[in-house]
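Schema walk-through. Below, the input block comes first and the output block second. Nothing else is stored per chain. Lengths vary across the set, and this one has 411 residues.
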Amino acid sequence: MSKHQTTATPVKASERFMILDILRGFALLGIAIANFPEFSLYTFLHDDAAAAMPTAAADRVARFVQYMLIDGKFYTIFSLLFGIGFSIIISNAVRKGANGLGIFFRRMVLLAIIGFLHLMLLWGGDILMLYALLGMLLPLFRNTTNRTLLTWAVVMLLLPVAIDTATQLAGIYLSAPVVELQQHYCAKYGITDANFAYWLRDVTDYRGVYEFLVQGALVRVQEFIDGNRYFKVFGLFLLGFYIGRNRLYARLEEFQPRLRKIALWGLLAGLPLSALYAWSATSSHPLGNALHSVLYLISVYPTSIAYVALMCLIYLHTRDCQLFRLLAAPGRMALTCYIGQSAIGMLLFYGIGLGLGADMGLVYVLAIAAAAYAAEAVVCRLWLHWCNFGPLEWVWRMLTYGKAFPLLKNP
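--- output ---
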């Protein structure tokens, strides 16, 4: 390792911008609410089983509200923050005379490994591996102009609509080979339509969990293909890179009037359109996949960006709010918290844990998700009182930079 490379270090606590940690913590809350219905196996239940729940009427309302206010919005925020983080890594390394690209690629390779292990050992809904693989393309845009960066971002975000329209007109199902492979593994392990929703609840050893995760990884690939997720994520990465490159997060006071307009018009336009999107999602896309894709485009992104603008405005007026400090703690330990949510889901809902899955309505699941996140936030706050990094962040940084960092703070 060269002399210049060894001068690179992670961003110090004194160099962090709290608003980014707050937004990351806020995104983790939404991600928990979005993911726990799948952890709990509620998402896998047949309609008649869900309708038989005592909370069925409230569950239908909760499901609609979840699609309207949560679905897609928080992974959008998380993706924007990833792009911002890339710009910070590069600028930090360049400022210190280090090999920023080398650091970034090591970071992405390690994240891909973490994501793969998460996907195959804990939960089939992993997003980290996709983030890492797409993140490796970001250096291609580091020297482009702002206009080029934004143009490519818009193209990436519009591509899913074009693809969904073309495949619908042609009657093509791009994910068909993956679905066939997934069905092969289901048949191999004895996972059927009848026991799919209850498999993880009824397993008594980890081998059964792993068998479900194998086919679950293929379901995840199918979701990425059907949802054109790679184009969406990469477009958001580029938009986040634009925000980071221009340090907009460090100039919030300067942009207050613009933030107000973004929050106002984003919510005025995004929420009614999100209601239409929720209707389409809960009604099995009655207008077709192409129009559903259009509704996603014009509802999820404006609402997500409005959420970000609103959080920034609130932060500017209440910087010392304890709630923000509580949100910022999991934001600083995002990797640990994200993986931790999967571990909590496994312990609560799978048969190798408490086995609570597939037996409770959505309203209870969402309450558990909120409680789990609150517990994570408190634990993170206490952890960071004594430690410099979250446990997974600590290991990730040491492997990235090839040097040891003290976990505990000085007395």
